[in-house]
Amino acid sequence: MTTESEQQSEQQPQTGPASSDPQREPRASRDFPGMGLVKGLATTFKTMTKHAHTVQYPDQPPELPPRTRGVIALLEENCTVCMLCARECPDWCIYIDSHKETAPAPPGGGRERTRNVLDRFAIDFSLCMYCGICIEVCPFDALEWSPEFEYAEFDIKELLHEKDRLREWFWTVPAPVALDPGAPDPKEMAQAQKVADKRLTAQKAAEIVALADGGAAASGQPERSGPGRSGPAGGAEGDG
Amino acid sequence: MASTAHWWLEVALRLVVILGFFLVVPLLVGQMEHKAMAHMQGRLGPMRAGGFHGWAQLIADGVKFAQKESVVPADADRLVFQLAPAVALLPYLVALVVVPIGPGTQVGVALDLGLFFVLAVMGVGVLGTLMGGWASANKYSLLGGIRTAAQLMAYELPMLLSAASVGMAAGTLSLGAIVDKWQWWWLPWQLIGAFVFFVSGLAELQRPPFDMPVADSEIIFGAYTEYTGLRFAFFLLAEYAGIVLLCLLTSVLFLGGWHGPFSAHLGWLWTVLKTLALAFVVIWLRVSYPRLREDQLQRFAWTALIPLALAQLAITGVVRVL
Amino acid sequence: MNVTTASVQFTGSAQSYLSPTGVEVAFILIGLVVLGSALLVVTVRNLVHAALWLVVCLGGIAGEYLLLGAELVAWVQILIYVGAIVVLLLFGLVLTRAPIGHTDELDVKHRAPAVVVAAGAAGVLVTVVVDAYRKVWLEPRAAVPLGTGAANGAALFKYWVLPFETLSVLLLAALVGAIVISRRGADGDSDEPESVGTD
Description:
The structure holds 3 protein chains of 3 kinds. By secondary structure, chain A is of the alpha+beta class. Chain A is built from 8 helices and 5 strands; from the N terminus they run ααβαββαββαααα.
């Protein structure tokens, strides 16, 4: 028993310093009088020798992330005047005017249809708080964030951007992030593809018939309108 | 008559040179503070005024100050309020006259008691701050003035004692003679004295970390709160002139002034270089350390600096006798 | 002031741009300034203004010392009196009560006795000093070597050591007395806080 206790008492002082050494070392250097003062001086001096973080903005463009929320852009063609954005806007800074147009009934039968035509779409950026709710809420992706931010004005009234100007901003909206490899196509893409495929088979069938008839083949025109309806993303890509 | 005219010409020339030094070097230190402080904080500092790295920033500031309206508060003591900046600024100009920057005759007026004169005149500068603090009719200004006075009284003593140590070592009170007698081994010998002198000088100038009298987060800007325009600029200039004078004095008393390679021809350059290096240290300390509290300020002066200064006096005496 | 000293030193033996009467004229002018500011110190109705006039008065006296060639005394006058005593005075004033504008409490009732005492003291001092130095003529420029730090140091520590040391003992006693008084105040604080407060 005594030997064991002796062994323990021998072991303890051995393990004690060994375990506390790495802790005690920095504390001793910290406790040395004036060490903290020297460290403070060293920190500032080291910072001085390094490159400054300042970006000299007007001379040097800032490096912004691609999805920076700079200004809200409008793709007029996608807008159905559903008024969701204007209603959700916390600042009531979106102004929309529209009128109804009646399309005549298609010749194949059916009734005549009405659709909304956008007359005015304006965002007052002097009121906007850049919450992005209008963009979230838009069911047709007519509103998007653009990274542009240099639209300061001398007159506050100039900050009311009408739809032409909002449409101009849309050219600067970056392309959407690519889908993961192997992911299924988005719903509208799949639908468009289906339509395109159907037209293609119909066209081929028509070609075969035409070939059999020996007449001239008409091609291309209907096919192109298919992908054009695939959504704002495609439109933006095409424009960019 | 001709010799008298010559003498007058020489005096005028010296005074013009000193005035130029007085107006240019503080601006240099101010610009250095802008840039060094900015880079120590990972910034660039002024970059636009004057084109190249904002070299003309302080000139632009001066123009701005000159254009500003000079406001005297309605309840202020007008005359004292208006006089205070001059009282704060002039002593530093006068003190500069007797500090030698090179060997021989490179000094405004070689006073036999130059050391005494400089310290006496430097103490007067604080009177301006006190006057401004009282005359502003503003609680913050008054608090700043009181703190300034308390700080002066605490730090004047260690400053004088450490300066006396150098006087003892050299056996003279003439600044030029002190530098003449300076040897390299005075550096370790008078090290404590140099530390005490520099630190208490910083405290007397209310430079960070001893800037309790102008602590902007609690008393706005102390005695200078109500000042605008040129008068405020004078106070600022007084601060930087004070830095220049303190660094000049420290380099002359403790760092050997013009001693260095080629000191026969380039002596003045050495003095200026040492002064600017010390000014950099002043800025460096400002960036690195937080402000001392008022009780810490007083305790540091009375329990650390004065004993250290007395110890330095004892060391100096012992070495002199041996 | 500087220029004057420099000239006094510079033209030690050669022809001076200031004739001896020039020094005397300057002496009298500064003396008038000193006298006027001293009168203002006691008559001005504003405490801080009085302290600031004291600065002018003490600075003028330093100028007089300088004209008499007592350089060390002049700088000590500025260092101790202007730089420290007046700052202490102002500190005390500002810390307690120093309103901007007139202070009516400064009008003491015993004005006449004060004038009598002051005039009497001044009369005695002037008579004694004039009588003692009636025959002594001090050439200002010749006196310059007497006013240097070395000359003063030699005089102080060779011929006047005993009075000097006695004075330092006096100062020490004053220091100890100050500590004792402040300590007693601190002790009384715990016993009778109210009486200390009214003190």
